[in-house]
């Protein structure tokens, strides 16, 4: 199976899992990216059973609505039963790097609310130490230079994501060349920098379940 087929396979497994747990109160949190897009397609197959979804980006909301799936504002959702999303990197503790697609802040908010966070990925994303993938940080535009200097003090190489504006009207700085040995500590250090909205480390609130697709099939890891 190529990488796309692996993404499809984990998306199908997550959709089957969500379907098996649906009741009349279930609100499904839906992630952003190519793996999440496959999940959205599978959701479409049982859309009449889905009460509502909350989308982690404008693009995801557009895709859900195009399939006729109800999308509600998070503030109108009494709870999110399950949130399904991809990741750019994961370690065996289910700490993640997310935000390659720039949707990290809304993703993190949904993860914070969700009772269960199911991450889906192909097994090329599983690493021993996070940081090979550049870590995205969402930043208020006027704080760009300040945040960049603070990132250098923490030992990273900040790279401004040219021409990209988040759904929240902010910019992204990607941190390169940082071996993240203590993800929980770095997540908090970055959040302390004035001007940072949030960062793409999901270590304080990791995934609860990880469905990984590889050449030998699917593997599920839980915390
Ligand atoms: O965090 C994300 C978007 O902000 C995505 O989940 C992450 O970038 C993985 O994307 P893909 O499924 O396309 O590999």
From TrEMBL:
Biological processes, Gene Ontology terms: D-ribose metabolic process; pentose-phosphate shunt, non-oxidative branch
A Pfam family of this chain: Rib_5-P_isom_A
Pathway noted in the entry: Carbohydrate degradation; pentose phosphate pathway; D-ribose 5-phosphate from D-ribulose 5-phosphate (non-oxidative stage): step 1/1
InterPro entries, alphabetized: NagB/RpiA_transferase-like (IPR037171), Ribose5P_isomerase_typA_subgr (IPR020672), Ribose5P_isomerase_type_A (IPR004788)
Binding-site list for substrate: 32-35, 85-88, 98-101, 125
Annotated GO CC locations: cytosol
Keyword hit for Glycoprotein: no
A molecular function GO annotation: ribose-5-phosphate isomerase activity
Catalytic activity as recorded in UniProt: aldehydo-D-ribose 5-phosphate = D-ribulose 5-phosphate
Subunit structure, interactors included: Homodimer.
Record protein name field: Ribose-5-phosphate isomerase A
Species in which this protein is naturally found: Pseudohongiella acticola
């Amino acid at each position: 199976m190529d990488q796309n087929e692996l993404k499809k396979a984990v998306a199908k497994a997550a959709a089957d899992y969500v379907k098996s747990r649906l009741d009349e109160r279930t609100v499904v949190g839906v992630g952003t990216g190519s793996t999440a897009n496959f999940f959205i397609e599978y959701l479409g197959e049982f859309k009449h059973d889905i009460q509502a979804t909350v989308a982690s980006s404008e693009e995801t909301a557009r895709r859900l609505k195009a399939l006729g799936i109800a999308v509600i504002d998070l503030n109108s959702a009494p709870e999110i039963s399950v949130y399904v999303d991809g990741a750019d990197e994961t370690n065996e503790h289910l700490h993640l790097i997310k935000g390659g697609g720039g949707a990290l802040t809304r993703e993190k908010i949904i993860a914070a609310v969700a009772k269960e966070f199911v991450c889906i990925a192909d097994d090329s994303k599983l690493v021993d130490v996070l940081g090979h993938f550049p870590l995205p940080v969402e930043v208020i535009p006027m704080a760009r230079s300040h945040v960049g200097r603070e990132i250098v003090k923490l030992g990273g190489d900040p790279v401004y994501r040219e021409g990209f504006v988040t759904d929240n009207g902010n910019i992204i700085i990607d941190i390169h060349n940082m071996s993240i040995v203590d993800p929980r500590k770095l997540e908090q250090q970055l959040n302390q920098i004035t001007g940072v909205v949030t960062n793409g480390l999901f270590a304080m609130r990791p995934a609860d379940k990880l469905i990984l697709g590889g050449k030998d099939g699917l593997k599920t890891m839980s915390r």
